Amino acid sequence: MHAVTETDIKAYPLRSRGKVRDIYDLSPDSLLLVTTDRISAYDVIMPDPIPLKGVILNQITLFWMDMFKDMVPNHLIASDVADFPAPLAPHAADLAGRSVVAKKAKPLPIECIVRGFITGSGLKDYQATGSVCGHALPAGLVESQILPVPIFTPSTKADLGAHDENITLDTAKEMLGSALFAKVEATSLAMYAKARDYARERGIIIADTKFEFGLIDGELILIDEVLTPDSSRFWPAEGYAAGKSQPSYDKQYLRDWLVSIGFNKQPPAPNLPQDVIAKTQEKYLAAYELLTGKKLA
């Protein structure tokens, strides 16, 4: 399967091109979401793709959406290119496995992050204030330590190339309203708990993850990607020990390589050596295979 870095579908207007996804307007009520093989680090898009990455992300999302379908509705209309609108048929080779037709929803203005372990920006906030997004945490927590209970820690949604910022629960409640906030928080925590337990049985620790929701006629809908290596931290359970950073099934390998060469975290990004591309792909494939129990066809 060839790498897909960018799509060019003239039959429909391009709505947006993000760090990973190309989104097209299909109708007043539907979108085409294409998950490409682009990869970013430190909010900078790399010049070289990771072959199959988009397929892996899309298939993992479909896997989790199916698992959660009785907990929250999702935006899916079709995931098989054979069921896509006829004008997309000439693009079937580029779209197969990596795209979905989805309902248009009004996205909520926050990222819905759940943390089960203290790491990343949560660790930085904790070290500075003893709390994360308004959650007061016990003293003495160390990097990668499991939290007493998972916590809901919302953030802003930043524009392309900018960084999301953690916000307090009160701020998120003001943005959404109390009733919708309560539903989003409860749904996010319930999905995380179910996924955490499932993944743990398969040798993966889900340290944290980010969900996105939208509204359709006032109904809460799960949208975008779900529990992928791009939206989550997946750690191998074997060898886990608190007090240090953990190896992971995601693009941390790429980030570490960029740091090792002195990348200043600003565009333009350097070209990626073949061994870095191969090792990064290997991490994504391992996550897919462990979680789904399948080999990528």
Automatic annotation (TrEMBL):
- The SAICAR synthetase/ADE2 N-terminal domain is annotated at 16-262
Which Gene Ontology molecular-function terms are recorded?
ATP binding; phosphoribosylaminoimidazolesuccinocarboxamide synthase activity
Q: What's the catalysed reaction?
A: 5-amino-1-(5-phospho-D-ribosyl)imidazole-4-carboxylate + L-aspartate + ATP = (2S)-2-[5-amino-1-(5-phospho-beta-D-ribosyl)imidazole-4-carboxamido]succinate + ADP + phosphate + 2 H(+)
InterPro entries from the UniProt entry: SAICAR_synt/ADE2_N, SAICAR_synth, SAICAR_synthetase_CS
Give one Pfam family, short name only: SAICAR_synt
Top-level division of the source organism's lineage: Bacteria
- Biological process, per Gene Ontology: 'de novo' IMP biosynthetic process
Q: Which UniProt keywords apply?
A: ATP-binding, Ligase, Nucleotide-binding, Purine biosynthesis
Q: What is one cellular component GO term in this UniProt entry?
A: cytoplasm
The metabolic or biological pathway listed in the UniProt record of this protein is: Purine metabolism; IMP biosynthesis via de novo pathway; 5-amino-1-(5-phospho-D-ribosyl)imidazole-4-carboxamide from 5-amino-1-(5-phospho-D-ribosyl)imidazole-4-carboxylate: step 1/2
What EC number(s) would the UniProt record show?
Answer: 6.3.2.6
Family designation: Belongs to the SAICAR synthetase family.
Report what the protein is called.
Answer: Phosphoribosylaminoimidazole-succinocarboxamide synthase
Gene source species = Solidesulfovibrio magneticus (strain ATCC 700980 / DSM 13731 / RS-1) (Desulfovibrio magneticus)
Question: What gene name does this entry carry?
Answer: purC
